[in-house]
Amino acid sequence: MSEPRSLAGEAEQLDAADGLAAVRERFVLDDVTYLDGNSLGALPAHVPARVDDVVRRQWGELRIRSWEESGWWTAPERIGDRIAPLVGAAAGQIVVGDSTSVNVFKALVAAVRMAQEDGPGRDEILVDATTFPTDGYIAESAARMTGCALRPVAPAEVPSALGDRTAAVLLNHVDYRTGRLHDLPALTAAVHAAGAYAVWDLCHSAGALPVGLDEHGVDLAVGCTYKYLNGGPGSPAYLYVRRDLQPRFDSPLPGWNSHAEPFGMRSDYAPASGAVRGRVGTPDILSLLALEAALDVWDEDGVSVAAVREKSLALTDFFLRCVDAYVPAGRVESVTPAAHGERGSQVALRCDDAGEVMKRLIERGVVGDYRAPDVLRFGFTPLYVGFADVERAARVLARTLTG
User: Fold this and answer.
1) Total-model pTM
2) Which residue among the candidates 175, 201, 219, 369 is catalytic per the annotation?
């Protein structure tokens, strides 16, 4: 078992050499070791002033004029274009608005409709059997709406489960419970080889690791913005529709904001061109513009997703080493894959009485979360988490478990 002083010293050296260390100063943080950015990202320090301007000047003074003069109307596409490089997409393919759940519904129903246009017999949806529950609920509703059967399968089993009946496949890039990273390129290729459409949930990967939506030919994707993108509680989600599929994107939620003539007030619906088809109703401007401000963190000093991924893997490697060194054998078990190619930006540890353990950790200044019945989750946001945070978290965990 390593001495705490040696690992603490190593953490100090790693922090001194960290090329992203200065980014931490752009966030509102305190002495708490915050490892729950995979649920809610920390507040970027400049966001309150930007939101104050939106409220006091844009809303308070300009009022209705801000839809044009402050760019409110075009914000969903403008902010989508800022998210695009973080998920490997060219501009013009992402629109921001609504919740992740709503966007999953739009994407999945649209995918099935395209598959059924391609030819008869496409009447089955495959869904990640380990998915976040809401994705499963939405998939079940989409299946009923489109006359499809719903078939839950483990991501690794998707290639063998695909067939002539498969219309669409809904998968998570990173498993929310274990932190396992699934093989997006290979699974997308398998779905396409079967003549189906791939819909990816990027909630636990966008802003933490490279995604490569365009590179790998993903059809549709959705994701939230309040985790690694630090957009704030309940900040709007986004919808990606690959450019060549946009003319065929048939949203099950057509709204006036996605109409070709939104102010024409016509009784018949005619969809707009491009990513705008993913819009529904009036955007949530306050949350939307708070997100836009939060994304500035990525622009300053040219923070790259590649650098974030490199640090993420180093942080999670170091945390696992510290846990192995400090925590008595048999008290916890990592359920997060050791292989870098299979790991997201969190570590999940199986632990007896995980809920009570996490409660005590939080009382001692280490904030993660847990998932029933027995998983402790620790999320590592490289923009503001350092190696000293990692070492301290493992040390406090060991103390919590032993006394």
Assistant:
1) 0.97
2) 201
